[in-house]
Write a structure and sequence with these properties.
heterodimer; A: 109 residues; mainly beta; four-stranded antiparallel β-sheet; 10 strands; 0% helix; 45% strand; B: 124 residues; seven-stranded mixed β-sheet; globular
């Protein structure tokens, strides 16, 4: 099992807000980053760092937060094009390796 | 803007060694800003970080694959490579190369730039 745990699937109505979570002991010490992956494409970084930064070109409806052992990705006003798989990533508990969460499939209804 | 491109055989026989190369363009692999990583994704499954290499040759690997993986760098060709030995069907996956940027101030690493991925199937 992965050191980072995500819900396998989440759905949201068009225009509504959805939160995707990632849990793991290492998140108490290390920040998470978030990746969006659409079918047949490479993942794209959407949120990273202590202050939950967004790379250039990522819409501001994407935001991140963290508390204790849980990191969250929030999409405020989800759009049809946000339907994708989302993965969290951080360091493992020993700090010497990187790990991905199992991924969350987001469906926009 | 970095560009990364994976290359290598799409079919490998069980028990043999999988070998892939990633060519970096748009920047030098010796820049020092990045480590260079490999990530894989079995069909229909999630992402798995395999390991990363720095231009000096220093490496880090995921514990579950450490005994079978070697990642190396060729600065003269602006390339880095992955070797995975004793492969089985479970190693069939899309293999991505990516830039791995440590952010010490943020206590994290990020994968900024990715190759398009290459599908490797392990089958006799």
């Amino acid at each position: 099992s992965s050191e980072l745990t995500q819900d396998p699937a989440v759905s949201v109505a068009l225009g509504q807000t959805v939160r995707i979570t990632c849990q793991g002991d290492s998140l108490r010490r290390y920040c998470a980053s978030w990746y969006q992956q659409k079918p047949g494409q490479a993942p794209v970084l959407v949120i990273y760092g202590k202050n939950n930064k967004r790379p250039s070109g990522i819409p501001d409806r994407f935001s991140g937060s963290s508390s204790g052992n849980t990191a969250s990705l929030t999409i405020t006003g989800a759009q049809a094009e946000d339907e994708a798989d989302y993965y969290c990533n951080s360091r493992g508990s020993s700090g010497d390796h990187l790990v991905f969460g199992g991924g969350t499939k987001l469906t926009v209804l | 803007q970095l560009q990364l491109q994976e290359s290598g055989p799409g079919l490998v026989k069980p028990s043999e060694t999988l070998s892939l190369t990633c060519t970096v363009s748009g920047g030098s692999i010796r820049s020092g800003t990045y480590h260079w990583g490999w990530i894989r994704q079995p069909p229909g499954k999630g992402l798995e970080w395999i390991g990363s290499v720095y231009y000096t040759g220093g490496t880090s690997y995921t514990p579950s694959l450490r005994s079978r993986v070697t990642i190396s760098v060729d600065t003269s060709k602006n390339q880095f490579s992955l070797k995975l030995s004793s492969v089985t069907a479970a190693d069939s996956a899309v293999y991505y190369c990516a830039s791995d940027e440590p952010l010490p101030g943020d206590n994290t690493n990020i994968f900024d730039y990715w190759g398009q991925g290459t599908l490797v199937t392990v089958s006799s």
